[in-house]
Design brief:
The complex is a heterodimer. By secondary structure, chain A is of the alpha/beta class. Helix content of chain A is 36%, strand content 26%. Classes of the chains: A alpha/beta, B mainly alpha. Chain B: This is Transport permease protein.
């Protein structure tokens, strides 16, 4: 039996005549990771700001941790933790002082506050830097301190707005690990990201937000199934070889500029062998063969391609 | 926890945070102290003879006595510029967004600033007062009650200017803008009775100088410390303090309660 951590219905928000959120519905079960995926300016941050009581929606209703967002804002605040896109640490004071500030604001006793602060600083590898002003921290350290501060109040629902934007690959993987551990403790995580890989790696459910609307929602697998399947791509360097192959493999999609052919394929070994046999039988020798399985990039581009089509699609070589 | 004890607890926490800032980075507060101290020394040691001669005789020590009360209030104006700057700095930081999403007493963010700033003002006034005493200012005739009233006036005046400065800081997009917007707080004392009596100013200007917030407070402080005539200035000063406090309070609250950007 799962209960709902976040339920939003028809949320709208506009600034002037620019509509940022155009009626979005979301349901996030307790103890899961939900990713709101979208390009810059899609309205991700606005959605987080509304759900975390920072701004009010123009229309729609939402419940967070079972409390109405507008009528019981203070109860919502008691249940949530928010780590925004821009670091929410006090740079003028030390990491430890930041943590103790949070402990005080969460009304922990002095002893409890010191214990929790020390524990979290250790968990996020900040013990050594604890006595230094937070303004001297690196981007990754600031982000870790930020999350550590969010955790002081033991929130049941955590909002992370682009938690890994601007982090180097190592810090990003550390952050992913941190997020996974949070959910292991039963916490619900609502995160926004513009990285498809991140949503694929972390999220139980993903909603793709585009132009203020939810373009699609489901698990990573469900989303991948929504778009046409994979293919095999054969690339040639010799134009003559390309032309003769294209004549033989008449069902292949042609890309005359790149001298490449695309054959539909599910990427299985059997299917691959069939294709290779056919190529051998016809004496076709491609200079490069890549197997392309649909990933979230394809979903993302398929769903959000309103104005620009990506010049180059991602290939995953097998 | 009851609303009141929650408010008290969170305000104390916020106050501690602001005092920690002030202690860690005292340069801003100390810089702001320089202006009144420099003016004090300038007007006593450089212009002193001319000023006291122009005011109808008396020697330099008379002019010191005349000057110090106004400069004490100017110190408050100067200190609250720092308040506007630090509030503006704070509001542009992500930490305020964090505070807004926490189950804390909402007003504590601002009241923490106000109390911290009033404390800083009082300390600054004591420091400038000490300089005054060092160069010869004496207020030996004042009774204990008058001293108490003078202290109360300084605190009230600091509270009023602080609330206005908080409002200025909240509407300023950055520290530079806050510092510019708060300029009247340092400019008004220059056109008050700090340096010369109002009745020696051009006739058309006298009403402006006489009824702006600083002059009544200065005249009241002078009366309390030196025994000069206070007259209606006491009530005027009190009225200004209450009015500015209320204005600053509702202004700041309205800005803070607006949606975050």
């Amino acid at each position: 039996m799962t209960t709902t951590a976040i339920a939003a219905n028809g949320l709208r928000k506009s600034y002037g005549d620019k509509t940022v959120l155009d009626g979005i519905d979301l349901t996030v079960p307790e103890g899961t990771i939900f990713a709101l995926l979208g390009p810059n300016g899609a309205g991700k941050t606005t959605a987080v700001k509304i759900l975390s009581t920072l701004i009010t929606a123009d229309g729609g209703r939402a419940q967070v941790a079972g409390h109405d967002l507008t009528a019981q804002a203070q109860s919502v605040r008691a249940a949530i933790g928010v780590t925004g896109q821009f670091s929410a640490v006090d740079g003028l004071i030390t990491g430890e002082e930041n943590m103790l500030l949070m402990a005080d604001l969460n009304h922990l006793s002095k002893q409890e506050g010191r214990r929790v602060a020390a524990e979290l600083l250790a968990r996020f590898d900040l013990t050594e830097a604890a006595k230094k002003p937070a303004s001297t921290y690196s981007g990754g350290m600031k982000r870790r301190l930020d999350i550590a501060m969010t955790l002081v109040g033991s929130p049941r629902i955590i909002f992370l707005d682009e938690p890994t934007t601007g982090l180097d690959p190592r810090s990003r993987h550390n952050m992913w690990q941190i997020i996974r551990e949070l959910v292991a403790d039963g916490v619900t995580v609502f995160l926004t990201t513009q990285y498809l890989e991140e949503a694929d790696q972390l999220a139980d459910r993903i909603a793709v937000l585009n132009n203020g609307k939810i373009a699609a929602e489901g698990t990573a697998e469900e989303l991948k199934r929504m778009i046409p399947g994979g293919h095999i791509r054969l690339r040639f360097t010799d134009p003559d070889a390309y032309r003769s192959a294209a004549t033989t493999l008449h069902e292949a999609a042609r890309d005359d500029e790149a001298l490449a052919l695309q054959l539909p394929s599910d990427g299985s070994q059997r299917n691959l062998r069939t294709i290779l046999d056919r190529l051998d039988a016809s004496g076709i020798e491609a200079d490069e063969l890549t197997v392309h399985t649909p990933d979230l990039d394809d979903v993302f581009f398929a769903l959000t391609a309103t104005t620009t089509v990506p010049a180059q699609q991602k290939e995953s070589a097998r | 926890m009851s609303t009141l004890s929650l408010a008290a607890r969170d305000t104390t926490t916020m106050l501690r945070r602001n005092l920690l800032h002030a202690r860690r980075y005292p340069s801003l507060t100390l810089n702001l102290l320089l202006t009144p101290i420099m003016l004090l020394l300038l007007f006593v040691y450089i212009f002193g003879d001319t000023m006291s001669a122009g005011m109808g005789g008396g020697d330099r020590s008379d002019y010191i006595a005349y000057l110090v009360p106004g400069l004490l209030l100017m110190t408050i104006g100067s200190t609250t510029i720092g308040t506007a700057v630090s509030v503006s700095n704070d509001m542009t930081e992500g930490i305020i967004a964090r505070f807004r999403t926490m189950a804390i007493h909402r007003g504590s963010v601002i009241t923490g600033h106000v109390i911290g700033s009033v404390l800083q003002s009082v300390i600054s006034v004591v420091l400038v007062g000490a300089v005054g005493v060092a160069i010869g200012f004496r207020s030996t005739d004042a009774t204990a009650l008058e001293w108490l009233a003078a202290f109360a006036l300084l605190v009230l005046f600091a509270t009023a200017l602080t609330w206005i400065a908080v409002g200025m800081g909240m509407v300023s997009p950055n520290a530079e803008a806050a510092s510019n917007n708060a300029m009247p707080l340092i400019f008004l004392p220059l056109i008050s009775s700090t340096f010369v009596p109002v009745d020696q100013m051009p006739g058309w200007f006298q009403p402006i100088a006489e009824y702006q917030p600083f002059t009544p407070a200065i005249e009241t402080l002078r009366g309390l410390l030196l025994g000069t005539e206070i007259g209606h200035n006491g009530w005027l000063a009190l009225a200004w303090c209450v009015a500015l406090t209320a204005l600053g309070y509702f202004w700041s609250k309205a800005v803070f309660d607006r949606d975050a950007k």
